[in-house]
Amino acid sequence: MNTKNTYKIDLLGSHFDKRDFSFKEDDDFFKEIDGLINRGCVDTTVSCVCTGTVFKFYVHSTGYVIVPCDRCLSDLELRIDTSDELVVKLGDEYSDDGDCVIVPETEGYIDLAQFIYEFIALSMPITCTHEPGKCDDAMMQELSKHQTARSSYDDDTSDDSNEPKPIDERWQVLKDLINK
Predict the structure, then answer these.
(1) Which of 46, 56, 72, 173 would suit a FRET pair with 118, their CA atoms being 20 to 30 Å apart?
(2) Going by C-beta distance under 8 Å and a sequence separation of 6 or more, which residues neighbour residue 118?
């Protein structure tokens, strides 16, 4: 099933001053885009205002997406509520540089699927993690086995015995400066 075809807007076929579109991004949509987002359910409304050869798309998306937690890799549900604007002009050749997308007049359409996906992805936080204490317990236990002690230079004994750890002379000089 090719859901991307439903996101193609004909810019030349019918002349209009303003048109509204509604889309629903579901699991199939996110699988086809094949990005960071695994699944979700997002409703998107698009209002397009045309002024000659310039089209302004006002995109509003609300819903939720499922992404892997950056800490434990289990599914994390994130709420989405974003409003964005896309400016499209007709021109000679396709260009997606800067604030404006140029669509060749010979094609006469724009596919909004990738833009809507990017708007949704950009509305997500930089790090996607569960609330403290909500991560997968098994994964957190496994991670704790592989973490090193945060303050290994402050602890002068090794883990297995009470013998002092060998310290590189250069670090010992710095440690002595701190202790003065």
Answers:
(1) 72
(2) none
CA distance 102 to 54: 9
**76-122 tens-digit pLDDT:** 999 999 999 999 998 888 888 878 999 998 888 899 999 999 999 99
Give, for 141, the enclosing helix (H) or strand (E).
helix 137-146
Q: Which amino acid is present at 135?
A: C
Interval 175-180 mean pLDDT:
78
- Residues found in the chain: 180
b vs e for 137-175, b when ≥16 Cβ sit within 10 Å of the residue's Cβ? Answer: eeeeeeeeeeeeeeeeeeeeeeeeeeeeeeeeeeeeeee
**Confidence class of residue 173 from pLDDT cuts 50, 70 and 90?**
confident
pLDDT > 80? residue 5: no
Backbone phi, psi, residue 14, to 5°: -135, 130
Residue corresponding to tokens 């098994």? 138
Neighbours of 121 (CB within 10 A): 16
- pTM, two decimal places: 0.76
Closest residue by Cα to residue 127 from 51, 72, 45:
72
Helix count and strand count (H, E) for the chain: 4, 7
Q: What angle do CA 32, 33, 38 make, to 5 degrees?
A: 85
